[in-house]
Amino acid sequence: MSDEDDLRAEVRELRAEVDALHTRIAALESERNTDPPPSAKDEAASTAVRSDTAAAESRSPSDSEPAPETGEAADGEAPPDERNWERNIGMKWLGGVGGLALVVGVVFFIRLAIEAGYLGPLGRVLTGTAGGLILLAGGRYAAEAQGYSRWGRLVAGTGLAIAYFSVYAAYGFESYRAAIGAPLWAVLLVLTALVAATAALSVRDHAPAVAGEAFLLGYVTAYVGLDAGSFVVSPAYVVLLTAGLVTIAAVRPWSRLVLGSVLPAYVLHVAWMNRLEPPDTVAAVVLAATFAVYAAGVYVLRASDRTDRWHRRLVEVTTASNAVFAAILLESVVRRLLPTAPDGVAVGAVGLALGGIYAVTESRLRQQNSAAGVLAVVLLAISVILAADPFAETVGLLVLLCGALALGTSRGAGAVRIGGHLVAVGTVAKLLAVDATRLPAFSLADPLATVTGRPATYLLGIAVFYVLGRWFGGASTTVPGIDRELPVAAPYAWTATGLAVVLLGLELSGASLSVAWAVLGLAFVGVGLALDDRGRRLQGVVVLGLVTTKVFLYDTRGLDTLARTLSFLVLGGILLVASYAYARWQGEKPLQRLSG
User: Fold this and answer.
1) CA nearest to 171, candidates 226, 118, 130, 119
2) What SS3 class is residue 215?
3) Residue (of 55, 56, 65) closest to 4 by Cα position
4) pLDDT for 42-77, tens place per residue?
5) Which of 49, 86, 194, 327 has a Cα-to-Cα distance from 138 of 20 to 30 A?
6) Each residue of 316-349: b (16+ CB within 10 Å) or e?
7) Using CA atoms, how far apart are residues 525 and 531, in angstroms rounded to an integer?
8) How far apart are alpha carbons 18 and 41 in whole angstroms?
9) Angle at the Cα of 34 (from 28 to 38), degrees rounded to 5?
10) What's the pLDDT tens digit per position in 243-293?
C-alpha cells in the first residue's frame, strides 16, 4: 500500500470518528430539548477535515503532483509581480498577437479562396464582413456574459476592424469597385451604421477602447467621403461624429476619447479644404461649428461626476488644442474671405469665445476652466500683434495687460491673471527683440518719430511695470499644477528697472552712458532710503555694480582720456554720495536697519 493510500485511510477514519461525535452530541442535545448552534471549533474542524478529504480524494494515484489551477483563484494566490507579468503575457500579448494572427489568417484564407476560384470580389467582401461581425459579437459575449472583459474587447476590436475594412474594400479598391459596382453612398451608409452600432454597444458595455476604435474608423469614413467630390459630405460627417462624441460624454465622461478626436477632426478639415477648395463662407461655418461642438463637449465633461486630476488635465488640454486649431484655420479662411479686414480678427474672436466659455463655466459649474481663461488673454494679445504696427502693438499689449490683471484681481479669476502675466512676458520680449531694432531712436529733428518711437514705447513699458509692481505690493499668485505661491510685485519692479537700463544703453554710449547709469543707480538708492524700500535700494546697488563693471573693464580701454576721466570722476563721486546716504540712513543700529 502506498503512502497516498495510507493517507486516504487515515482521513476516512478521522471523518468517521468526527461524524460519530456529531451524532452523539446531537442525541444529547435532543434529550435536553435544546438546539444550540455548533461550536466554532467543531465547525472549523469539520470544515478542515472535509477540505482535506476532498483534496486527498481529488488526487490521481498516477500523479502525485498537485494539478495546476486555472482562473481567478490561481491568479489570486500567485505573488503580485508574478501575477502581473503572467497576466500581461497571457491576456494582453497572447491576445494581441492572436488577434493579429487571426486577421492575417483571414487574409490568407481569402487569398486562397480567390486563387481557387471560390470567391469573387462580392464574396470576399461578404465573407470578411460576416467573419468580422461574428468576432465582434463573440468578443462582446465573452466580455459581458462570461466576464473575460479584456480578452473579449480585444476580440471585438479585431472583428470590428475586419468587418470595417471588408466593407471599405467594396469601394476603396478600384478593382472591387469596378466588379461590384457599389456606389459610394451605399458604402458610406453601411460603414456609418457599423460605426454607430459599435459605438452604442461600447457605451452600453462600458468599453471606451472599442468606442475609440469605432470613432477612429468613423474619421476614416469621413476621409473616404472626400472622394464624393462634394464639399458637404466630409465636413458634415466630421461635425456629426464630434457631436456623437459629445453626446457619449454626457453619458460616459470619457475625456480621452474627446481629446483624441480633436487632431483627426481638424486634419480632415484641412484635407477637405485643400482637396475640394470649398467656398470660404462654408469653410468658416464648418470650422466655427466644430469649435463650438468641442466647446460644448468640454462643458459636458466638466459638468460630469468625474473630478480626478487626470480627467481635469485632459479637459484642459482638449480646450487648448481645440482653440489653437480653430484659431489658426479660421484666421487663414477669414483673411481670404475678408481681405480688407485687419489681421488677427479670427484669433481675437476665438479669444473672446474662450473668455465667454470661462465665464459661463465659472458661473454655472463653479469651476475655473484655467486653459480657457489663460488662452483667452493670450489669443487676444496675438490678435493685437497681428493687427497693429510695432508701436501700436506695444500700447495694445500694455492696455490688455492692465485690463487682464485688473479683471482677474477684482473677479478672483486666477486664470485671467496668469494670462496677463504671460502677456507681460511677451511684451518684454517684444520690447527687447522688436522695438529695440525696428522703432526709430530719439531724434529732435523728427518729433513725430520720437513720440511713436523706441524711447516712447520703453518709457510706457517702464511706467506700466513700475505701477503694477507698486499696485501688487506683497501679493502672490498660484500657478496651476504647482503647490506654491510666487511673488508678483518684485518681478514687475525689477523688469521695469531692467528696461530702464536697456533704454539708456540703446540711446547713449561711452561716458554719457556711464554717467546716466550711475545717476540712475543713485536715484534708486535715494528713493529706497527715503521710502525705506529694500527692493529699490537693491535695484540701485545692482545698477551701480553694473556701471562700476563697465567703467573699470570697458571705459579704461575703449574711451579716450577725457571721457575715461569723466567716467571715473562721476562714478567715484556718486558712489561716495550713495555710501554717505547709507551711513546716515543706518543711524545708531545699522545691522538692525539693514535686516529690516
Assistant:
1) 226
2) helix
3) 56
4) 444 444 444 444 444 444 443 433 333 333 333 344
5) 86
6) bebbbbbbbbbbebbbbbbbebeeeeeebbbbbb
7) 10
8) 12
9) 75
10) 988 888 888 888 999 999 999 999 999 999 998 888 999 999 999 999 999
